[in-house]
Predict the 3D structure of the following.
Amino acid sequence: MSDDSARLQTDLVRLVDQGRRPDKTLVPRAPATAIPASAGAGRPKQAAGTGTAGIASPLTEPDAATRQYHANAAAITTDGVFTWVIKPLKQVDMRDAGNAVVALIFADPYAAP
């Protein structure tokens, strides 16, 4: 039995030593070539056909009465005791700092996919 236990011990030591061996490493990479020095300037690009691009912050809603809504939807509790009627927003018209109209259009959250 001592031969078997000695063999087991040497096999275990060999396995542990294999785990300690350093992994094979990759060949060192050649150094990258330098990018030649140059001068330049970044210039903003305007959107085609317009003098300005983007929305100027802040957005304000001039009239809440102009909001548009999707069809009403009902949310019912699982026991059926409470029901809420929900009016999901469809569109809100806003004005930006440049007085341009910005329309925020929302998908119907209760529409079938």
